[in-house]
Amino acid sequence: MGLSKSTIDIRVRDSINALLIAQGGTMNTLSVLSTSELELALPELKGWSIEQGKLHCRFQFSSFIEAFGFMTSVALVAETMGHHPEWCNVYNRVSVNLTTHDAGGITMNDIHLARKMNELAASLAMESLLG
Fold this sequence. Notes:
4-stranded antiparallel beta sheet; alpha+beta; single chain
């Protein structure tokens, strides 16, 4: 019996966090991540890249309503985190840039929000397939 995808994702996330700490990194969510820390975190963030010093991703949905629904869901999460994305919506596309302005760069807050955005986008895609 194999491990579920969510179990593997949690173990990968925990391994990345342990590596960050072992390499002298910190789990302080407001510390700017080093290049090596970002290189460790990026592979788990499907579709994300670094552009102009910010985490960047472009999501595409089947309709404007799905794109706007995604933004609404993210807005609720972002508000609870006290961390808000820079984003733009054009019809069925949402472009996102994440950075922690107070820290002056990309922090674990950005990684956490990017991860959550991927989860929300995936759940919308599943609902679309089921619905």
